[in-house]
Each structure stands twice: as structure tokens, then as C-alpha cells.
Please model this.
Amino acid sequence: MTRWPSPEGAGLVAHAAAWYAPAGAFAQRFARFKLHHDPVFAILLAQGLVPARARILDIGCGQGLLPAWLATASDCHPHSWPGDWPSPPVPTAYVGIELTPADAERARRALCGRTAWPCEIRTADAREALHDERAAYDVVVILDVLHYMEFDAQQAVLRDAVRCLAPGGRLILRVGDASAGWRARYSRAVDRIVQWLRAGRATPLYCRPADEWRRLLRGMGLALREIPLPADAHGANVLMVGVLAESTTSHGTAGDACAGAAGVPAQPL
Ligand SMILES: C[S@@+](CC[C@H](N)C(=O)[O-])C[C@H]1O[C@@H](n2cnc3c(N)ncnc32)[C@H](O)[C@@H]1O
Model:
């Protein structure tokens, strides 16, 4: 992908932010800022990481930037579309799980009943809400969420996420790399400032080295691929795509493999 945002990219960001008009000025400003400064959503489309007609589960969906971005893609393709990007996916279903009621409400106001595909936002704690999830998804997305959960809970949520994958489905995961030195410390500092601004307090962050994330995901039966992120954006983060084998029954794989997966780091940071 060329430098983000490209001229067409700036148009997509403005269009996506406009989806938030029913959710208020803050939601619109936040969408514009995040989509402009964080290239991960552009990378998902530029590299065709979300298959056409996917059923998508988005864990820790925030205010629903992913569905807003996918809806924007459908609106803007092909007339205002970057020439080097593939045709965008049109999901068949989207479910977002979000712990923070205000974020979930912004997502609902902006998107539910307004997209061309069913879009459901559940206000729930992913540490509990996924135990009973029986639907199969082609894509499970977890972007910048797991470090807010205790180490054991991270593994349990990943197990649930893999169990929710249809055969051949993929987990798209972005996590911090605790072994990234000053960049990891910088990312954590920014995270804490944002937490203070949003909630008036900062909770512990539970960070693992990238190698440990890799071992954990491979231990759950996923074939792993990593997508390079631009060095100037979220330098301490890694974006991974884990694909479940076509023949795997995820129900058996995730739980069994996880028991012997990567060791739990000693302390929250
Ligand atoms: C940094 S934001 C990322 C939001 C979204 N994934 C994105 O990339 O725009 C992390 C989100 O995860 C949510 N979150 C944290 N713990 C969660 C949990 N246990 N269950 C569901 N959501 C959670 C937070 O409320 C927050 O909205």
C-alpha cells in the first residue's frame, strides 16, 4: 500500500466518518482521526484480508469502525476506489461485541439498520459472552483488545474465537509486542493516557512478546501469516492472520492445544 491516506483514501475516511452523523460529533471526529492515523483498516481492504461474503465477528469492536469502513467500501467502489486495491468484500453478517456501553451505543446509532447487511452490536464482556456462541464465522477480528484482559482471559477468549471459526476461517488479530523495547513502552504510555482521558483511570495492561502470541496461536491450530505494518504507525504492534484448516473441527482443536500453549508472562505491565 502506498502512503496512507492516499488521495482516494482521504475520501474514504471522510465518507466513513459521515456514517457517524446519527451518533454525534464526537463519534464523527473520532472516526475521522482514527481512520486517518491508523492504516490497519485500509490494509484489511488493500490486501484483501476479509473474504467476500464473510460472516464477521468483531471482538472489542469499539464504536464499530470496521463495519463503517466496510459499508463505506461498498458505497465507494468502484467510482472512488484506489486503483491498486481489490474489490471490497460485502459481508453477509456482522456481529460486534463491545464492553463499553457508550462505544456500543455509538456503533448501533451509526450502523444498525443502516447497512445493506445485518449488523448487530452486543454490549457484552467478551470474556463471558463467547462461551455460548454457536454461530460459525468466516472471520473473527480482534484489534487492540486483548491487552486489556488478564493473561488467562486472553487465552480463553482466543480459544472461544477459534472455536467460532468455520473450517477455513481466519482470525485477524492485532496485538502489542512486549519485546519491542522503547516502542512497546511508548505504546503502553499512549494507551494509559487514552484510558485516563476516557475513563479517568488506567487499568493494568497485560502484554506478551510477539513470539509468545505466535506460539499461542499456532498451538490453537492456526496457520499464521504476518502482515507488515508501516513503521511510523503503531510500531510496537503486530498484525497476524491465523487460518484454520478446512478439515479442522475448531471445537476440538482450540481447547486441547491451548492447554500446552505459551507460558503465561509473570506480571501485568
Ligand atoms: C483500543 S479499542 C479498539 C476498538 C476496535 N477494535 C478498533 O480497532 O477500532 C479496545 C476496545 O476493546 C474493548 N474491550 C476491552 N475489553 C473488552 C472485553 N472484555 N469485552 C469486550 N470488549 C472489550 C474496549 O471497550 C475498547 O472499545
In short: The radius of gyration is 18 Å. Residues 60-62, 65, 97-100, 103, 125-127, 143-145, 148-149 surround S-adenosylmethionine (CB under 6 Å). The chain has ten helices and seven strands.
